[in-house]
Amino acid sequence: MIGYLGIDVGSVSTNLVVLTEDLRVLHQIYLRTRGQPIVALQQGLQELAANLPEGLVIRGCGTTGSARQLAGVIAGADVVKNEITAHATATAFLVPGVRTIIEIGGQDSKIILLRDGMVQDFAMNTVCAAGTGSFLDQQAARLGIRIEDLGPMALRSTRPVRIAGRCTVFAESDMIHKQQLGHPTEDILYGLCEALVRNYMNNVARGKEITPPVAFQGGVAYNVGIRRAFEEALGHEVVVTPHHAVTGAIGAAMLAREAVRPGQPTNFRGFAAAAQPFAASSFECSYCANHCEVIDISSGGKLLARWGHRCPRWDLEGDAGLARNGEAASNNVATG
Question: What's the pTM value of the predicted model, to 2 decimals?
Answer without folding.
Answer: 0.84
